[in-house]
């Protein structure tokens, strides 16, 4: 079993839809959770990070962590074609570490 | 430039040849990372540098892989006697990891390696 599982997609949605992207993990020690966005043939860029449980909102994006279920989500409201990318979750035991475990990424297509 | 720069962006080589991939991190970033990204797979950690030292080389897949960093700046990932399974995108990232505080990972655009 992989430490972090992520549905590879692709996920296709119409413009304006609410998108839910998810990761599950097996290591209960993970406390620092990140979402990266990767456009085609580009490097990943940090979108959001959260520490421990709860929600964090940034514009159209909301990151949610449920440690009891070992489940994290990224919600995108009012999705735009420019949101079309691969979204990778990443996590680590602490924030002061170099070792992040990445999911495989979910490819998202937002159709105009 | 202000970002992480990697070269070459694309490399096609024949099985058995050696390749060198270069990474120029963001100036002042103390930590440098190499990851491998295969199609349909997550980012696979290869090696991490703090300054010019590599405290963790555990992710290097075999002794054909090596990496160095000089001047707390440029890093080179070398793959000797390349095999077809080495085909992947090799991503470099840098950050301000210092005193236990992790900064955001800034990634380059990657070096796409194809071994024929």
Summarize the entry for a quick read:
The complex is a heterodimer of chains A (112) and B (116). Chain A is mainly beta and 112 residues long. Helices cover 0% and strands 54% of the residues of chain A.
Task: Please write out the topology.
The complex is a heterodimer of chains A (112) and B (116).
Chain A: E1 4-6, E2 11-14, E3 19-25, E4 32-38, E5 45-51, E6 54-58, E7 61-66, E8 71-76, E9 85-92, E10 101-102, E11 106-111
Parallel strand pairs in A: 2-11
Antiparallel strand pairs in A: 1-3, 3-8, 4-5, 4-9, 6-7, 7-8, 9-10, 9-11
Chain B: E1 5-7, E2 10-13, E3 19-24, E4 31-37, E5 43-50, E6 53-56, E7 65-69, E8 75-79, E9 88-95, E10 106-107, E11 111-115
Parallel strand pairs in B: 2-11
Antiparallel strand pairs in B: 1-3, 3-8, 4-5, 4-9, 5-6, 7-8, 9-10, 9-11
Question: Can you offer a commentary on this structure?
Answer:
Chain A has 112 residues and is an all-beta fold. Helices cover 0% and strands 54% of the residues of chain A. In chain A, strands 2, 4, 5, 9, 10 and 11 form a six-stranded mixed sheet that branches. In chain A, strands 1-3-8-7-6 form a five-stranded antiparallel sheet, with no helix packed on it. The mean pLDDT of chain A is 91. Chain A starts with a strand and ends with a strand. Chain A is globular and about 40 Å long. Chain B has strands spanning 5-7, 10-13, 19-24, 31-37, 43-50, 53-56, 65-69, 75-79, 88-95, 106-107, 111-115. In chain B, strand 5 and strand 6 form a beta hairpin. Chain B is globular and about 40 Å long. The interface between A and B is medium-sized, with 26 and 27 residues.
């Amino acid at each position: 079993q992989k430490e972090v599982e992520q549905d590879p997609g692709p996920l296709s949605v119409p413009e304006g839809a609410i998108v839910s992207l998810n990761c599950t993990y097996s290591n209960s020690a993970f406390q620092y959770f990140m979402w990266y966005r990767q456009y085609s043939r580009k490097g990943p860029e940090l979108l959001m990070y959260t520490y421990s449980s709860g929600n964090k909102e940034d514009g159209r994006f909301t990151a949610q962590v449920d440690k009891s279920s070992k489940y994290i989500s990224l919600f995108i409201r009012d999705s735009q074609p420019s949101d079309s990318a691969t979204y990778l979750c990443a996590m680590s035991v602490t924030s002061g570490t170099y070792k992040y475990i990445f999911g495989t990424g979910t490819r998202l297509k937002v159709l105009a | 430039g202000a970002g992480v720069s990697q070269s070459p962006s694309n490399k096609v080589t024949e099985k058995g040849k050696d390749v060198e991939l270069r990474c120029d991190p963001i100036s002042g970033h103390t930590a440098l990372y190499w990851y491998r990204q295969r199609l349909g797979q997550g980012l696979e950690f290869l090696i991490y540098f703090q300054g010019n030292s590599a405290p963790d080389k555990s992710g290097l897949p075999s002794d054909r892989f090596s990496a160095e960093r000089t001047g707390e700046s440029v890093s080179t990932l070398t793959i000797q006697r390349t095999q077809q399974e080495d085909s992947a995108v090799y991503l470099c990232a840098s950050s301000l990891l210092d005193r236990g505080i992790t900064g955001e990972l800034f990634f380059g655009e990657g070096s796409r390696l194809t071994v024929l």
